[in-house]
Write a structure and sequence with these properties.
Strand content: 15-25%
Distance between the termini: 17 Å
Protein name: Glycosyltransferase, GT2 family
Organism: Bosea lathyri
Radius of gyration: 26 Å
Oligomer: single chain
Number of strands: 23
Number of helices: 19
Structural class: alpha/beta
GO molecular function: transferase activity
Low-confidence stretches: 1-6
Keywords: Transferase
CATH architecture of the largest domain: Alpha-Beta Complex
Helix content: 25-40%
InterPro entries: Glyco_trans_2-like, Nucleotide-diphossugar_trans
CATH class of the largest domain: Alpha Beta
Length: 613
């Protein structure tokens, strides 16, 4: 295991130097306190140790498996030409030579390297490129007479390209030897693919230390509207890059992010493919965006501009804001002039104090202008509760009776039938609103045409995380990632702080259009009466072609299982086991591999760390 000083000094370099690192520490102290800072430092050390272990145990070894990879190459029926786009400016000789060498070392031979020198002052670069192009006919180069910017240089490189696919490569980064072969294999197996991206990690300036592995989810458009998670390696169809006009001038620092947004605007999820393998090493050098967005402040502003332009092009009305303590974006979608009616559906039995507190928090803190509350009562007998219901009715709250044995799915389905709202919000009675715009955030996402279920960020009463989405097939049948983490924690690659797509969210607070709930048949009140019915519901919605969304900007407390208790005792455990088996059989594909959870992350706990088992 590395000492704490080694990864900390790398963290300082990644942050853009000591000054930027100190500012980052101040931000963390402000948002998470000393405990949060210590936890982050410890996690950095542990994560690096886990990644070193992962490399030793699970990483591809193309050098050792060359015969097998040659066999895969020979078996390819289609052999597309990859045009690698490399803008160059004042690149140190050793780094440029290493980047070019990583291309020339590719197992897959059908490539061309298209280089543009963006007006470097040193004649050494031009001489090196000229010598290379004479030695290797697959290398082409051009030169801008004056330094312009990375977008202009990328577009100049693009004019040299003749390949089927375009692959951006920074002038100091490295491709793995099997990178292009893996893309060719993926393209052949998925002939409709038009954007293919892989996992990546970082290497230090010397090129000897690998760290900060980014094991990515499959296609998540909402995550791409939060930050450039696609990043590297990315292969795009050349005709698509040309169709959108290549790289946009003025987006420097976020030029690739902008390109990915433009290209994917006309693609569907089947045309965007993720290869869950590390195929790209992003070098951390002084003032590179790999080190930190703090090293190039304009990159964060460019990211916001790229996302705003994307919203405008696609007709999505919204504003882009940047988080104060992280280089990620939030899209604040705008509600229509006529806000749709939202029906908040709350199952309940007795528990007068609990349901009163829940309703009071909704009515006192919700700024959304158009909602109704519908309580589905499961045969309450408590005098205080019945008296409270009379009070609620006078306030316009609807009480729907469900007198049969407790069946969470059936109670929610009754709510669906009785609701008048265009948007349904399923809410547990043991919740309490935190932020006043919670309902606005849920509704404005739920009414997006492509969106199915929308989930919130829920906390225990000690301000630790109770729910940040659901990963299927982790910790058994399904789990809540980051359970017990502090409220301000960033999570794996910032995913606790950004809107993103997931396979499932909890129905403790879940919004969905009523039409979609009816389309998928509501909740399963026959086989999944008590548990896992929300996961099943979400997976039905996802399988129907909708994107499920989790947003950290709708926040509530969830005093979990205060109504019915936890799933303990032999009878409850046996029922949960039966329901788990049903979900496993019904959704085996998701249980085996949740598209939003990398196979390289642990499946044995909720911490979202690199697997070592």
């Amino acid at each position: 295991m590395p000492s704490i000083t080694e990864p900390l000094w790398r963290a300082v370099r990644r942050a853009g130097g000591l000054g930027a690192a100190l500012r980052r520490v101040t931000d963390v102290l402000r948002s998470e306190g000393a405990r949060g800072l210590l936890r982050r430092l410890q996690r950095t050390v542990r994560q690096e140790a886990r990644y070193e272990d992962w490399i030793a145990r699970f990483d591809d070894r193309p050098e050792d498996d060359r015969a097998a990879m040659d066999a895969l190459l020979l078996a390819l029926r289609e052999r597309p030409l990859f045009s690698i786009i490399m803008p160059v400016f004042e690149t140190p000789a050793a780094l440029l030579e290493a980047a070019v060498s990583s291309v020339r070392s590719q197992i897959y031979p059908h490539w061309e390297l298209c280089v543009c020198d963006d007006g470097s002052s040193s004649p050494r670069i031009a001489a090196f490129l000229d010598s290379l192009s004479r030695e290797e006919p697959r290398i082409k180069w051009t030169r801008l007479t004056r330094n312009q910017n990375i977008s202009a240089a990328s577009n100049a490189s693009l004019t040299l390209a003749t390949g089927d696919w375009i692959i951006p490569l920074d002038h100091d980064d490295l491709l793995r030897p099997h990178a292009l072969l893996e893309v060719a294999l993926a393209a052949e197996a998925n002939p409709y693919a038009r954007l293919i991206y892989s996992d990546e990690d970082k290497i230090d300036a010397s090129g000897t230390k690998r760290f900060d592995a980014h094991f990515k989810p499959d296609w998540s458009p909402d995550l791409l509207r939060s930050f450039n998670y696609v990043s590297h390696l990315a292969a795009l169809k050349r005709e698509d890059v040309l169709r959108v006009g290549g790289w946009t001038l003025g987006m420097e620092g976020a030029q690739d992010h902008d390109l990915y947004l433009k290209v994917t605007e006309t693609l569907d999820r089947r045309q965007i493919l993720h290869i869950p393998k590390i195929l790209y090493h992003w070098r951390v050098a002084e003032n590179s965006t790999a080190g930190s967005d703090a090293a190039k402040p304009y990159a964060v502003a460019a990211m916001a501009s790229a996302i705003a332009s994307h919203l405008e092009r696609t007709g999505r009305e919204g504003d882009v804001t940047l988080l104060d303590d992280a280089p990620v974006a939030r899209v604040r979608y705008r509600l229509p002039e006529r806000a749709p009616l939202a029906t908040i559906i709350i199952p309940n039995k007795n528990m007068a104090a609990l349901i009163r507190a829940c309703i009071t928090s909704i009515r006192s803190k919700t700024t959304y202008p158009h909602y109704e509350i519908l309580i589905v009562d499961n045969g309450s007998t408590d005098y205080e509760t019945l008296r409270l219901y009379d009070e609620f009715k006078r306030q316009g709250i609807v009480i729907a009776d469900y007198p049969a044995e407790f069946n969470y799915s059936a109670m929610n389905n009754l709510g669906i039938r009785e609701a008048r709202g265009e948007v349904l919000v399923f809410l547990n009675n043991d919740t309490s609103v935190i932020g006043e715009d919670w309902l606005s955030e849920l509704v404005v996402n739920a009414i997006r045409p492509e969106v199915g279920c929308v989930g919130a960020k829920l906390y225990f009463d000690d301000d630790t995380i109770q729910h940040a989405g659901v990963f299927v097939g982790v910790c058994g049948i399904a789990c809540h990632p980051y359970r017990g983490f502090d409220k301000g924690d960033f999570g794996y690659f910032g995913r606790l702080r950004v809107t993103q797509n997931l396979s499932a969210v909890t129905a403790a607070c879940l919004a969905v259009k009523r039409t979609i709930a009816l389309e998928v048949g509501g909740f399963d009140e026959i086989a999944l009466k008590i548990a896992l019915n929300d996961v099943d519901f979400c997976l039905k919605v996802h399988a129907a072609g909708y994107y499920n969304v989790w947003t950290p900007f709708a926040e509530l407390y969830h005093f979990e299982s205060k109504t019915r208790g936890y799933e303990i005792g032999p009878e409850k455990r046996a029922r949960f086991q039966r329901e788990s088996e049903i979900l496993n059989e019904r959704w085996q594909q998701y249980v085996t591999l949740d598209p939003y959870y990398s196979p390289h992350l642990t499946r044995t706990n909720e911490a979202v760390t690199i697997r070592t088992e």
